[in-house]
Every structure is written in C-alpha cells, then in structure tokens.
Design a protein that fits this description.
The complex is a heterodimer. By secondary structure, chain A is an alpha/beta fold. Chain A has seven helices and seven strands; from the N terminus they run βαβαβαββααβαβα. Chain A has one domain: Rossmann fold, CATH 3.40.50.300. The chains are: A alpha/beta, B alpha/beta.
Chain lengths: 229, 331
C-alpha cells in the first residue's frame, strides 16, 4: 500500500487538493483510504465519503493534535491494509508550526497557500522544511510575481523538495501531482519507523489541566521569556 | 565550488554570497561575518537552539547544499528556447488531433473555444511539458527535442509565466518595492535599474499613469495588468507567456503584446476578443478537449483588424470623455 502524510496550515486547501488527486487516482482504478485528523470538528470526512473513498476521522479533542496523530497512525495503516487500499493518505493540520507528522522514508507532502504571505514559509518548521513535495495553492488569485516570490521563499527553506502549484478548485496541476503519488512510499506497516523530527514537548502543570496564571502554579517543563533583552 | 565555500571564512562567504545569510536567517539562525569558516559555524550550532527551531544539523546541511546548488544554477545562463512544438494527442472522444505545430519566439497564438472545451488542459500540457502522460496524450518538444524533465519542477527556471484573469495583489507594498522584491528573488545583477525599466514600461502601457510609490493594491485593473506584463517581459526568465484575456480597460493591448513580442516571448493567449484574436499569428480552435483546427490569420482578417481598431479607438475616446465628466449627446 502506498502511504503519504499530507499536512499544512489550516485552510491552505489540503482537502481540496487531496480530492482532486483522488479523482485522478480513481480514474486509474485505485482503491483509496483517507485518515482525516482534526481537533474539534471536521465535516471533511463527508466530502471524502461522497467521492466513494474509505474514510476514518480522528479528533484529538483535548490532546495535542500531532501527539494524537503519532499515537494512532500505525493502527490507521493497519486499517488501510486490512481494507485492501492501494493508497492511504493521512491529512493533518500543523497547528503550531513546530510540529510535523512526517515520518522517515514515508512520502511527505506539505500544502501551503499563496495568500498566507511571503514570510510564512520561514515561520513553518519541519512540516514544510522536511517535506518531499510542497504543494502551493491559490495561485490563480495572485500575480505571477507573487507566485514566483512565494515559490522562491519555499525553495529557500526546502531546496530539495519538488514544488508544485496546484489549483484545488479547478484541479489544474492535480493530474501532475498524481503521477508523483504513483511513486510514493510502498509499505505494509509503520512498526519501527521514526518521525522525521521530534515533536515539541510541554509536560507542565498546564498539560494537566491547570488554568490559574502565576509562577506559583507552574511546575514541570516551564520556560521564561527574557524580559530584559 | 561548493566544497570550497564551506572552508572559507564566514566574512568572505557572506560578502560574496549574501543569499547565504538570507538562507540562514530564514531558518531563524543569526550569522555574523566572522573569521570562522561556514563549516565551523554549522558544526558549532547549539543543539538546543536547533531543537527549538525544529531543525536537525543533517537536515540543515542537506538543505544548504541543495540551496547552494540551486543558487549557482540560477546564475547559469539558460539554454535559449527557440521553438515549442505541440504534437497532437486526442480529444475527449478519443479522436486523434493529427497535428504538429511549432511556435517560435515573438509569435502570438490565440486559443479560442467555449468554457470547458479544454483550453486549460492545453495550457497545462505545455506547462507540464507533457510526454504522452496526460489525459490528452499530447507531446511537447522544446527546440525540437524531448526536453530535460527539470522544466517540470524547477521553480527558478519555469517554462511558463502566467497572467490569469482574476489576478490580485495580496502584498501590501508599493509598486517599486514589489518589483524590487521580485527582482531580488531572481538575483538580477542591477535590481534598481530593472525596477526603473519595468515601472517606465508599465506606465507606457497603462492608460493612466501611476507613481513608483503607489501601493500595488491601489492600482486599477489596467495598471495592474500593465505592471505584470512589463514584469513578465523584463524579469521573468520563462520563455513562454500565457495570458488569460486582456480586458479592454486601462491598458494599451497592442503595446502590451508588442512588448512581449519584442522580448522574444512565445505568447499564448486565451481570448474571445476580436481585436486580440486578429492580432495573433494564428488561432487554435479547441472543441471537445482537442485542438479541432488551426486558423492562420489571413490578409482579409488583417485588413478588418484596421477597421476594428478604428472602432475600438472611437469607443476608447468616448470612454475618456465619460471619465472627464463630459456628456455623450454628440458622438
């Protein structure tokens, strides 16, 4: 089964891009499964189900979404295998920009949009900087100059990635992206694999439900800003 | 070349390759022109700092390597594109297109056909440099040959620059800062001269003049297009210019096309405007997902273009009178 992790900031157009790719994969008679990770609520599972793909929804609720992702992704891959999927796609939003769901030797895709501003590529951590494929969306509504500047900023932080412009509405470029998916990582299990980059940690009183503000309530892994500098 | 860079003192490396500082800054690192070498700088980065930034030393080194390779490639002159050949595939019903069409720099080819007929697919085939691997089965040759697949993924040497119809500016910058930013991202040797040239040319195309300090978001539709066409002509290295209609407002369309022709672009333009269509050298008629036939501009059409332009100028004069607050009781 070919397995890919797709991540990107909220509202970058991940689901739309995946849906366009799914259409192209279905034209090639491939069976597809999608795991949609989100925090509180998502209706995207219905959009996937409408396309006739197998879909699993995971809501992290009160847990850190990427920690939740990594605790569950192995079982998701097993689920995809049991159901005879040719492709399994995991979709998750990188919410704090320091997290990344990408796994060593598993094809990693980051979706990011032109409207997010030219400084955004710098602000996103390993989710963008360690991706194999970077998909840039919403190119049709900005100028050619902005598209070029944005792509060059992405290239600056991830020079080795394949960078593609995809229009999630019209599907322009989705066919081409699909041909890259055809050579994505082919696996049967995730057992023993490692994340490309460790996830940020907290382990402080606030992790355990503390709500009061003040030094006396803070224990564990706490870090202070430098207010003098 | 690259290995040598790593051993040089930082001060020399940063002076000669300022983009390296920009690269390191974009990862949240600070670098000073010191006497230690670039390699030593990388070796001595604090592991806790890297952890905070979400970076591993190997990944940073790998990215820097790739980045330097890309930057050095950007400074290499491009192989000139002297022709683009479209070898026909098939339409949506599977019927063969039976054509081989070669386009040359300085030629304008119009693409006509109803919405959904397959114009976007044709443009996408060209951008992807299709080799029979798209739904149409078309093949695209560059300079008569199957090109290097680097055209597909290169961000610095893209084959096609595109001007779309519903284009907006989302950056909050003045026209000159905007162009300067673009010029800097392309590492041109004299960005200031290029900025001046583009603004000057854009103002020659635009119906109403704008100043270098005008925010791009305040430009009119015509001024925006004028700016982007001048930018496409003088800053884009893409040999093919793809234009999705130029509305007849606030921009001299003939001059705009002439500029791209003078800069030796292969121009492809989706349009239904009679004047633009007749300005082209030929029209590709798209039906049912395929190129159904090609119309070469005839002498009779060229003659009619003169009449159409006269009509157009009359309308334009009326438009200017409306703008000036006049009445149209006498026309």
């Amino acid at each position: 089964m070919r397995f890919l992790t797709i991540s990107g900031p909220p509202s970058a157009g991940k689901t739309s891009v995946i849906l366009r790719v799914i259409e192209a994969l279905q034209a090639r008679q491939r069976k597809i499964g999608v795991v949609k990770f989100d925090c509180l609520l998502t209706e995207d599972d219905k959009r996937y189900a409408q396309k006739g793909v197998l879909v699993k929804k995971g809501l992290s609720g009160a847990l850190c979404p990427d920690h939740y992702f990594v605790s569950n992704i192995e079982a998701c891959v097993a689920w995809g295998m049991e159901n005879g999927c040719d492709y399994l796609i995991s979709e998750s939003a990188g919410l704090c920009n320091r997290c990344s769901p990408h796994i060593n030797d598993i094809t990693a895709v980051c979706v990011i949009d032109n409207l997010s501003g030219v400084n955004t590529p710098r602000k996103i951590g390993p989710m963008l900087k360690s991706a194999d494929i970077v998909v840039i969306t919403k190119g049709d509504i900005v100028s050619q100059a902005e598209r070029e500047v944005f792509a060059s900023r992405v290239k600056q932080v991830n020079p080795g990635a394949v960078i593609m412009n995809i229009n999630g509405i019209t599907g322009q470029g989705a066919f081409e992206l699909t041909s890259l998916f055809e050579s994505a990582s082919d696996i049967t299990t995730l057992k023993g694999r490692t994340l490309r980059f460790s996830m940020p940690a907290a382990l402080c009183s606030y992790c355990l439900g503390e709500t009061r503000i003040g030094d006396e309530y803070q224990t564990g892994n706490v870090r202070k800003m430098d207010m003098e500098g | 070349m690259k290995q040598h860079l790593y051993q040089q003192p930082l001060a020399a490396v940063l002076a000669e390759h300022p983009y390296i500082e920009d690269f390191l800054t974009s990862f949240g690192l600070t670098v000073k022109p010191e006497t230690i070498s670039l390699q030593e700088f990388l070796d001595h980065l604090n592991p806790d700092l890297l952890e905070d930034l979400g970076l591993s030393r190997e990944q940073l080194a790998h990215n820097l390597d790739e980045f330097l390779a890309g930057m050095l490639a950007l400074q290499q002159p491009l192989d000139k594109v002297t022709s683009l050949t479209i070898i026909g595939g098939r339409n949506k019903s599977g019927e063969a297109e039976n054509l081989e069409l070669t386009l040359q720099p300085g030629e304008v080819t119009c693409i006509v056909g109803p919405t959904g007929s397959g114009k976007s697919r044709l443009l996408a085939d060209i951008e992807w440099v299709a080799q029979g691997d798209t739904p149409t089965g078309r093949k695209i040759l560059i300079n008569g040959q199957v090109p290097d697949s680097q055209w597909r993924f290169s961000t610095e040497h893209k084959l096609v620059a595109q001007l779309s119809q519903n284009m907006n500016f989302v950056m909050d910058l003045s026209a000159e800062d905007f162009i300067r930013m673009h010029a800097e991202s392309r590492l041109v040797t004299d960005p200031e001269a290029r900025v001046r040239q583009i603004l000057e040319q854009a103002n020659l195309l635009a119906g109403e003049q704008f100043r270098p300090d005008t925010p791009v978001t305040s430009l009119s539709g015509g001024q925006s297009r004028a700016l982007m066409i001048a930018d496409m002509a003088f800053l884009s290295t893409s040999p093919i210019a793809l234009i999705d209609e130029i509305e007849n407002a606030g921009i001299d369309r003939k001059k705009a096309l002439d500029l791209l022709i003078r800069e030796e672009k292969i121009v492809l333009m989706a349009t239904h405007d009679p004047i633009l269509a007749l300005m082209g050298d030929r029209r590709l008629v798209i039906k049912n997902g395929g190129i159904s036939h090609i119309i070469e501009a005839s002498a009779a059409e060229r003659r009619n273009l003169v009449e159409l332009e006269a009509l157009d100028n009359r309308l334009l004069a009326l438009r200017n009178r409306i703008r000036a607050g006049e009445t149209l009781e006498q026309i």
